[in-house]
Prior knowledge:
Blueprint: H1 10-20, E1 29-32, E2 41-45, E3 50-55, H2 68-77, E4 88-92, E5 102-106, H3 123-141, H4 159-174, H5 180-191, E6 201-203, E7 212-214, E8 221-224, E9 231-233, H6 235-246, H7 262-265, H8 270-281, H9 289-313, H10 319-325, H11 329-343
Antiparallel strand pairs: 1-2, 2-3, 3-5, 4-5, 6-9, 7-8
Helix pairs in contact: 3-8, 4-9, 5-9, 5-11, 6-9, 9-10, 9-11
EC number: 2.7.1.-
Enzyme class: transferase
GO molecular function: transferase activity
Amino acid sequence: xxxxxxxxxxxxxxxxxxxxxxxxxxxxxxxxxxxxxxxxxxxxxxxxxxxxxxxxxxxxxxxxxxxxxxxxxxxxxxxxxxxxxxxxxxxxxxxxxxxxxxxxxxxxxxxxxxxxxxxxxxxxxxxxxxxxxxxxxxxxxxxxxxxxxxxxxxxxxxxxxxxxxxxxxxxxxxxxxxxxxxxxxxxxxxxxxxxxxxxxxxxxxxxxxxxxxxxxxxxxxxxxxxxxxxxxxxxxxxxxxxxxxxxxxxxxxxxxxxxxxxxxxxxxxxxxxxxxxxxxxxxxxxxxxxxxxxxxxxxxxxxxxxxxxxxxxxxxxxxxxxxxxxxxxxxxxxxxxxxxxxxx
Length: 344
């Protein structure tokens, strides 16, 4: 049983899968995915089939974080919906097997785009990928949570009130130095909560293009990944998360669209993406969007603060990247304040 996030006990995993997964047959080859900072993820290759194993990191963790059991449940529930997800196989909550809870799902072949400028595509394909991203998001928010058994997947009440409180608490638990902008942002979000408009849908919690797998040669989405932050909540948080990401700098670190000539590249403007989403869901528009955008900047700042804390503590999935990512906490906080000021 290993406590190392970078490796996996191949013998223990193979033995457990042989006993529990019908059709599984080794030899097993394990490769760690470098993407993803929260839950270490591994490709499990066998001669007949490829799987993916996603585990909680070992060690002392923040309460409610790294919820791979929730990831498993929500993707299994979405199996027959209009939202593309990988096929779920098994959830193992016996920590004696590899040291923490894990689940196994199908590996979905296809393309993953880390850069929203989509440099590998032509303008027409870029537009199609972004429209597909928009359509999958709208479909997610139209899922009947009662019909797929997720009514209890999130508590009732004002989603933003709940989330601001939760992530403020998580941030304080992983705080490593004082960030005045973050303190101000948390206070302003708590003081200016939007009224509950009754929308209660499944939300992904980290919806962005690098958490999606697309056809190898086409533009259809094959699977939405990384459901750790999913819950029952307010759909505008997911929509604002997309816009938040696009306001980041271009490049491998920011992975945004700031300063890009989107029309020339075939990419939608923020307003066009929001309008297409509203058309798909039959909405007339969205008031107070600056609050939702600021909330997303705040939540991401809290998340990367947690990544930084784990890197400093020595149990991050990718410690070097975690330390680098931690430098963006004040940047996200500042962007959050600016979003609130623009909408004030």
